[in-house]
Amino acid sequence: MNKANILIIDDEPQIRKLLSIALQSNGHRVTEAATAKEGMIAASSHPPDLILLDLALPDESGHSLLKRFREWYSHPIIILSVLNSEQDIIAALDNGASDYLTKPFRTGELLARIRSVLRRASPSQDQQEIRSGSLLIDLVQRAVKKNNETIKLTATEYSLLALLAKNEGCVLTHQYLLKEIWGPGFVKESQYLRVFIAQLRKKIEEDPNRPVHILTESGVGYRFL
Amino acid sequence: MNKANILIIDDEPQIRKLLSIALQSNGHRVTEAATAKEGMIAASSHPPDLILLDLALPDESGHSLLKRFREWYSHPIIILSVLNSEQDIIAALDNGASDYLTKPFRTGELLARIRSVLRRASPSQDQQEIRSGSLLIDLVQRAVKKNNETIKLTATEYSLLALLAKNEGCVLTHQYLLKEIWGPGFVKESQYLRVFIAQLRKKIEEDPNRPVHILTESGVGYRFL
DNA sequence: ATCTCTCTTTATAAAATCTTTACGCGATCA
DNA sequence: TGATCGCGTAAAGATTTTATAAAGAGAGAT
Fold first, then answer.
1. pLDDT per residue as tens digits for the range B14-51
2. Protein A191 CA to nucleic acid D3 C1', in Å?
3. Which nucleotides of D are covered by protein (CB under 7 A)?
4. Model-level pTM?
5. Residues of chain B with C-beta less than 8 angstroms from the C-beta of A154
C-alpha cells in the first residue's frame, strides 16, 4: 500500500499544516482533527489506514484516546509528542502505539517510519480460493474439498488441478501442462496427463464418465470449469 | 509471546552485558554475537524471535548485514546505533528494520519497543492456546496437554508443534519447516523432520500409526488439524 | 568423571507415489 | 469394413518418500 489515508490528530494548526504538506506530497490522503473528540468522530466515520496522534490534546489525554482507539482500531497509530519522558513512551507503546516520535522530528524520518509501519501492517494475505459448484480449492491451505469433505490428492495431482483451476475457462495444452508440472523435458509424455487427469476425475467428479470440472479438448488439451 | 529468544549483535562487550542482563531479567533468553559473521551464523543455526543489531560492527556494515538478514529472516530486527543521522535511520527502516534506537537509550524504552514489535509480529495476539480434540497447546506457558495431562516435549519438538499448530489446516512444506526451526542452512535435512514428527506423534497421538493431528502430505510437507 | 537428556546420523522396512505397459472404446477416413 | 489415432482406465513395476528404531555425539548437571 503506497498511498494511505492518514488521520492527523493535533491541536496545533502549524503542525497539522506541516504534516499535511509533507504527507500529501508523498501521495497520501490526509484528514485533520484538532481535538480528541473530532479525531474519534473522523476515525469512526471514515477509518483511516494510519493515525498520527499528538499526546497533548485540549480535551482528553492522548494516552486515554489511544486506549479507546485500540478497543476497535487495529491499523497503525504513530504517537507524536513533545514529551521525551520514558514513562510516556513506555505507556504509549504498551497501549498499542505502533511507534513514538519526539517533536521536533525530521520529516524524512517520519515518512520512513510511516512506510515501515504500513509495510508491516499490510501483509495482504490473499485468501485465494477457487470455487466451482461443490468443489473448493483452497490455495493457501493447499487443500481441496468436495461437499465440505477434504479430498486427498498427491503432490502432482494437486499441482495439476491447481494449475488448471487458476486458468479457469482456458484451454491449457498438453505441452504447456507437461512443461509446467513435470518440466520441459517431458512435453512428449502425454500419457502422464491421461493417467493423472483420470485420477483427478475419479476423485473430484461426481460421475467421472461425465466430467463437469475437467473437460477434454481433444487433440489440444484440457480445460477447468 | 512474552518470553523470546533474542540475539544481540554488538561488538562492545559492555553493551552486550548490559542488554543481556536487562533482557534476561525480563524473562527473555539471550544469545550474543560480537561480529557480523558470528551473528549470521548464530541466527542461521538457531533462528531467534528477535534480533538487536548494532550498526557499527568490525567486519561488515550493519546496513549490509540487515539486508542479508532480510533475504530470509522475517522476525523483528531492532537497530541500535550511536548514529543519529537521518540518512541512517531512513535507510535502516526502508531496509526492513522494525525499529531504530539511538544510543544511549533508556532500558525501559528499549523493553517497551521490544514488547511492541513482538506484539505486532505475532498475529496470535488473541490466540494464546490452540485446541484440537483432547489436545491443548498453551502458547503462553509453552506447554502441551493431552487429556489434561502435561506432555513433556523438548525445545525443538515444541517449536515444531507450535509452528504447525499456528498454521492449522495449512500444509507447511519441508523447506519452510526446516528453515523456521533449524535455520536456512538445513533445508535439505528432511530426515530431521521425519524423526521429530515421529517423536511428536508418539507423544501426542492416540494411535501414532493413525495420526489425526499431524498429517503427512507426501512429497510436500505436514499439516496440523 | 559419569550420567542424563537431547540432537544428529545411519540403517532398513513399509508405504505412497510415479512410471510404464496393455488394452478397450469411439471417432475418423480411406 | 477395417485401420489408425487420440483418449480413458486398470494394473504391474520401479522409484521415491516416509516411519521407526537405534546407535553415536555433544552439552550440561551431579
1. 999 999 999 998 989 999 999 999 999 999 989 999 99
2. 22
3. 6-11, 16-22
4. 0.85
5. 218-219
Q: What percent of chain B has pLDDT over 90?
A: 84
Report the half-sphere exposure of A209 (CA within 13 A, side-chain side): 0
Taking the C-alpha atoms of residue B12 and residue B55, their distance in angstroms, rounded to an integer, is 12
- pLDDT of residue B175 exceeding 60, the answer is yes
Stretches where chain A sits below pLDDT 70 are 1, 123-127
The H-or-E segment that residue A203 falls in is helix A190-204
Distance separating alpha carbons of residues B10 and A145, to the nearest angstrom = 51
A173 touches strand D (CB under 7 A): no
Mutation target among A63, A90, A145 for the B interface, most CBs of B within 10 A: A90
